[in-house]
Fold this sequence. Notes:
The chain has 334 residues and is α/β, with parallel strands linked by helices. It has helices spanning 43-60, 88-102, 138-150, 161-168, 209-220, 224-234, 244-270, 291-298, 327-333; strands at 5-9, 13-20, 23-31, 66-71, 77-84, 110-118, 128-137, 154-160, 179-184, 189-194, 199-205, 278-282, 303-306. It has three domains: 5-73 and 139-168 and 313-333, ATPase, nucleotide binding domain (Nucleotidyltransferase, domain 5, 2-Layer Sandwich), CATH 3.30.420; 75-137, Dna Ligase, domain 1; 172-306, ATPase, nucleotide binding domain (Nucleotidyltransferase, domain 5, 2-Layer Sandwich), CATH 3.30.420.40.
Amino acid sequence: xxxxxxxxxxxxxxxxxxxxxxxxxxxxxxxxxxxxxxxxxxxxxxxxxxxxxxxxxxxxxxxxxxxxxxxxxxxxxxxxxxxxxxxxxxxxxxxxxxxxxxxxxxxxxxxxxxxxxxxxxxxxxxxxxxxxxxxxxxxxxxxxxxxxxxxxxxxxxxxxxxxxxxxxxxxxxxxxxxxxxxxxxxxxxxxxxxxxxxxxxxxxxxxxxxxxxxxxxxxxxxxxxxxxxxxxxxxxxxxxxxxxxxxxxxxxxxxxxxxxxxxxxxxxxxxxxxxxxxxxxxxxxxxxxxxxxxxxxxxxxxxxxxxxxxxxxxxxxxxxxxxxxxxxxxxxxx
Length: 334
């Protein structure tokens, strides 16, 4: 792929990064003031966002005009599907049929890509082909293309977040003993069971950091900015605010843990001799005070680590502690 940079436009922040080996060549972060994804913006908001993007690119010193951009899991259908062993043409037909049943858009209105993750070396009758399938509504992908073209960028690829996360954390992953990745974004949460070269399963929850802030605001009758400050300052610390903040956040966190457990159990059922024994935290929500010990206690036996994208990379000290925030953007840049 040509030299390019990764661009991750989240619902509250915009990250861009260009890497060269283990060195971060160009990096920048800015605010998305609209608190929503591009596909949900009005035309006026999209126009304003193009100006924000243009300024961020200029201020970062980015010279490349070639980009790989992220699209939120909320806007796509992405899933690991399993099929009986069959030829490639038959597999293509089977995937199309599966999408017709699962995706709420006409086949002519979606763009589809798929990758074979696992194919049995020997065929004894019960083996399955594992395929990672992604479908994006054409109307949404066109918004990204048009917006990026407006500011003079050449979009090489539009990619959903899960493959980018897998690519970023590949050095920490092992196909024989995969890890779970918990990507806590502002608008939603991605859960992935991932090996170094394989995605075993994934799940998207449309609840993220912004929803937690809103819950705090409603529970304590606070303005949003003050609720955000409370969340960042106290988090899941039981010894703060008499544990009242924990009681507000805990049901949401427990729901996320419940979905994570389901994926871990499903993996164990399919791979009797392997366990998911590591959880990598990614995204801005990874910094929530008390989250790591809370997850460790809830998932006894699972090692919980902060997913530091920049652990083995040379990067400006200003950004050194923002590794989890740049996890998707970094994956796009590779």
